[in-house]
Design goal:
Two copies of one chain form a homodimer. Chain A is an alpha+beta fold. The first copy, chain A, is built from nine helices and eight strands. The longest helix of chain A is centred in the C-terminal third of the chain and has 22 residues.
């Protein structure tokens, strides 16, 4: 395993659960006792920028909730090219669900693009937590549902033109995404070369300018 | 709406719930009373081969459980080319989750590739069923999880070569898939032209033959 116990920095600060409980509260109603119980199932962890959470070939031991920071999951093909599959911001989860659930080695890498504060959940801890607090089934059903929708959209867009892909992205992503990410990562996420992305962006800017001039 | 009430053929046969309850039983334990209650939330429906369940531009009103038959969901691009996103066999669910959950018009079409027996669930019926039988949250969480894994795999494979895609498919699909589907639909699912699929299959057959001869 790439992520050894020695690398896990335990964090004692209980305010680390603030965002998680806020997200829980949006979907289910937990008592204070249940929240306290919840905390015992998570492993708080800080990750510095560029540190790994998961490396291809390892089993994905953790589903990670992002309290602070930004991570990405990606594959690397035979030629060494990275393909970004997902970004995860504050309030999002990231893992390789296939590997997490089956115990099979993962084909994905997950690393931190900014300094991160995470809450990690093992498969066993998740099962136990859901058994002790069945209400949370609802929360996980809904977040997985949202994740499914996002992935289906990505799959449909993989057959779109470069311009359509970029339009789809700026419509659907959080406003902060382009500011927090280098261009080549946006390109990788869209399955475009940085040159194509740059060309598309220029074209879009020109179109916008033309539109403003026509209006004037 | 394409799917009008007049087109819904109600089916009285209660054995239609056999497979659904078998699938429920694999994940959660329901009493006979709960099963009876369940039935009241579903609309049994028969669909003949080539009939539609959902047409692009309409809101996806139903999540459909397949008791018998085979359906597909697909998009059509500006040039009129179909791209198959998902097949659904006996025991699977099919819908456009995005449209089903948000009430936004769908970008997908769903139609029957064989005569089908379906159990339809509206969003409202699903919500009410989950409220009355919260145990079922677990069942839906798990099936959505499996759907997410399958979609993530499809997304990752959209960047693979034709040969890798085909290999992935024959490893992961039910054995009956290639027999029940015309070649051009398999090609569309894989994002290949029928010619490329045919070339890949020939190459694979040759490789297999060569392997057998080398072994002999």
């Amino acid at each position: 395993m790439y992520l050894t116990e020695a690398k896990i920095n335990f964090v004692s600060n209980h305010s680390m659960f603030e965002l998680l409980f806020q997200k829980f509260d949006e979907k289910v109603s937990l008592s204070e006792e249940e929240k306290e119980l919840c905390k015992s199932f998570f492993i708080p962890k800080k990750l510095r920028k560029k540190q790994w959470l998961l490396q291809e070939g390892d089993v994905c031991k953790y589903a990670a909730f992002v309290e602070k920071g930004l991570l990405r999951s990606y594959t690397i093909n035979e030629k060494g090219t990275e393909h970004i599959m997902q970004f995860a911001f504050e309030g999002w989860w990231i893992s390789d669900q296939f590997s997490f659930l089956t115990g099979e080695p993962s084909g994905y890498n997950i690393d931190a693009l900014e300094n991160c504060e995470l809450l990690l959940l093992t498969r066993q801890a998740q099962d136990e937590m859901l058994e002790r607090i069945p209400k949370l089934e609802r929360y996980f059903r809904i977040i997985i549902q949202n994740s499914l929708i996002a992935t289906q959209k990505r799959l449909a867009s993989s057959r779109q033109s470069a311009e359509e892909k970029y339009n789809e992205l700026i419509k659907s992503c959080p406003d902060t995404l382009p500011k927090r990410l280098p261009q080549h990562m946006l390109a990788s996420f869209l399955g475009l070369t940085p040159e194509t992305l740059s060309r598309v962006r220029k074209k879009m800017t020109l179109k916008k300018k033309q539109y403003v001039e026509d209006k004037a």
